[in-house]
Write a structure and sequence with these properties.
With 395 residues, this protein is mainly beta. It folds into two domains: 1-85, no CATH class; 86-391, Porin. 8% of the residues lie in helices and 50% in strands. The chain has three helices and 21 strands. The protein has helices at 2-20, 137-141, 385-391; strands at residues 29-35, 42-49, 53-61, 70-80, 88-95, 104-113, 133-134, 161-163, 177-186, 196-209, 213-222, 226-237, 241-252, 257-268, 272-281, 297-310, 313-324, 329-341, 344-353, 360-367, 382-384. The strands form two sheets. It has a 19-stranded antiparallel beta sheet that branches. A two-stranded antiparallel sheet has the order 8-21. Strand 5 (88-95) and strand 6 (104-113) form a beta hairpin. The termini are far apart.
Length: 395
């Protein structure tokens, strides 16, 4: 029975491409990628590509007798609408969009729009128990504090690098930046193959309006749980940078309602970048990624500064603080320096938590590829979260 299931899942992308992929002038390309090759756990991704069609199927395999030998991760068919169009339709497993605020969720269903990837600060790698709500780098900073965030799977934190604050997306004209999705939320992603939960809907639309402003509307709905709706406003302020503000409200099935307000500013040039963001919310505000807490978050403030010291050296500093409605405050500071050494990269990360019973950490690592390609330089705003996570282990 197990071997039949394995064979069926391996043949699925071939069967889908034969049934739905339209003829293409250029030969189709088959891409197979493997990652995390370990005796205990490996993941594979197979894709069939043409000019405007993509059929993909990914799964994880394990030699551990206590778990399923093969677990399906994602199966999807993506069709681009026109050769010069950024619009696409995706059917199958996908990741929802999020605007200046909101949750990013894995779900199975349909997605239509121009946004093909989540925000840069969303961590897409970890497995998740329960509803597959993806955490952001901001939320990962406070995971071990019991904050409003999804839990990272063990071992995933060490491989995560993401900007603390994602850049605000501005629209030049019209309403060309949008995404609409509906389906059922994925459950136990990377743990179970075909587990789906309640009905889910998500919409994000960003439009250019007079005076150089970008107005964005975002809404998300989870059946028998929560509905949230909000609007964002952003504008380039000359050479100073980009300013943004977002407001949202939520209502739960239990009858609770709440509000959220978020303000941000960012500046970037060839030498350095600076990003600031502050968020306040009522005790009862919830999005799909939220959980009911005895001490919900009242305010979060984030700041990051990146500096290109030389062509081969960069320095990044991040600071985050959180205050709950019980007036409990935690402050975290992290510093990372990255230096190119030959064909590799030497990184040093240091962090400190000012909370009582938590400590400091220092990580030094060197990475060098074994292939012929030179390593890509790390984005200026990225830093390793394994160092941050270690600070929240009581000493």
């Amino acid at each position: 029975m197990t071997s039949s299931r394995v064979l069926l899942q391996l043949l699925l992308p071939v069967a889908l491409s034969a049934c739905v992929a339209p003829p293409s002038v250029e030969p189709e390309t088959v891409v197979v990628r493997a990652s995390k090759l370990t005796p205990a756990d490996s993941s594979f991704n197979a894709r069939v590509l043409s000019d405007s069609v993509k059929v993909e199927h990914s799964f994880s395999a394990s030699l551990d007798r206590n778990v399923e030998p093969l677990t399906r991760l994602e199966s999807a068919y993506t069709q681009q609408l026109g050769s010069d169009s950024a619009q696409h339709v995706r059917v199958g497993d996908t990741i929802s969009s999020a605007g200046m605020w909101g949750s990013t969720v894995r779900y199975g269903g349909m997605q239509f729009g121009t946004r093909t990837s989540p925000r840069a600060d969303v961590i897409t790698s970890p497995a998740s128990g329960g509803l597959a709500v993806l955490p952001t780098a901001e939320e990962a900073l406070f995971t071990s504090l019991g904050g409003r965030s999804a839990t990272l799977a063990e071992g995933d934190v060490a491989t995560v690098a993401a900007p603390t604050i994602a850049s605000t997306r501005l629209v030049a004209e019209g309403c060309s930046d949008f995404s609409v999705g509906v389906g059922k939320v994925r459950r136990d992603y990377a743990v179970m193959s075909n587990e789906y939960g309640p009905l889910f809907a998500n919409t994000t639309v960003a439009c250019a309006v007079p005076l150089g402003f970008t107005v964005e509307g975002h809404g998300e709905y989870l059946d028998d749980d929560v509905a949230a709706l909000g609007v964002g406003l952003a504008r380039q302020v000359g050479p100073l940078g980009t300013a943004s503000a977002a407001f949202a409200s939520s209502r739960t099935v239990a009858g609770g309602s709440g509000w959220l307000a978020r303000f941000g500013f960012e500046h970037s040039n060839q030498l350095f970048n600076v990003a600031l963001r502050s968020q306040i919310q009522s005790r009862d505000f919830r999005d799909i990624g939220g959980v009911v807490l005895t001490a919900p978050v009242m305010q979060r403030d984030l700041a990051s500064v990146g500096l290109n010291v030389t062509d081969r050296t960069n320095l990044a500093l991040a600071y985050a603080t959180q205050t709950t409605w019980d007036r409990v405050r935690i402050d975290v500071i992290a510093l990372k320096q990255s230096v190119s050494v030959g064909r590799g990269a030497l990184s040093m990360s240091a962090g400190h938590s000012f909370a009582e019973n938590f400590g400091s950490s220092l990580f030094i690592s060197y990475k060098r590829p074994l292939g012929l390609r030179a390593p890509a330089r790390s984005p200026l705003r990225e830093f390793d979260l394994d160092m941050i996570d270690s600070m929240f282990v009581p000493h």
